[in-house]
Amino acid sequence: MKNFGYNQAVRVGDRIECSGQGGWNPETGEFYQDLDEQIDQAFKNVDINLRDAGGQGWSQVYKISSFHVPLDMEAAGAMIRNFAKWMPNHKPIWTAIGVAGLGGTTEMKVEIEVIAHDEQGAKAAKGGQ
């Protein structure tokens, strides 16, 4: 992922907070044009960044905030489909918000921000203490 002068995810103790992830290709930075593809890729980007911060991915997520242009049934359906794919064994809390724009571009249709709990990773980060 490109570095824009901030971290995509940070660990604070046993929490990992992931900044808003959109449906961009991590290799090229280009946005997928199809809404389903953007949402699918945003979920992949969240997973990449949680793991880069030492977590285990979506299985540790307990809070999701998503921002949509627009927030409609197509967007909600794609989100719910990805919840079932990435988190088949638990159901975090979710807030979905419709917004006028994202990321300063008309191409960006979704942004997903999460908080995860990673007790084991926090112990490992402290050197096993």
UniProtKB/TrEMBL annotation:
Q: Name one GO molecular function term.
A: deaminase activity
Organism domain of life: Eukaryota
Return the InterPro entries for the record: RutC-like_sf, YjgF/YER057c/UK114
* Cellular component, GO, one term: mitochondrion
Output this protein's name.
Uncharacterized protein
Species source reads: Exophiala mesophila (Black yeast-like fungus)
